[in-house]
Amino acid sequence: MTRAKPSTRQVEREDVLLGLFACTPVLAWIAAQQLSFLATRSICANGNRWVLYLVMGSAFAAAAAAGAACWTKWKGAADGTPTYRRFLALGGLFMAAICAVSILSLMIAAAVHRPCD
Asked: What is the pTM of this model?
């Protein structure tokens, strides 16, 4: 019987952070959409529309912060940095840009459409 060789590549802290930075904008977009949908009934009953903007503004801030972190990681990568890290940082930057535009479109729709009217 043969033994399986353990993987020589270890997961480093940098890889975990880049993975989190790449996933944060998507999770913020999903959270903004779901929380605004679930809170619309209570917001309309109370008349506190600022809660809707608070939810979407915090989701936009989270997506923008993750994009800024990915930008920093991508620009600060030295020549010795593995290419998969640069690729993940650039992919996280593009994902943050797409999700930030999507969150902004949710905010514009909430301001123009006025779900309580």
From this structure: 0.80
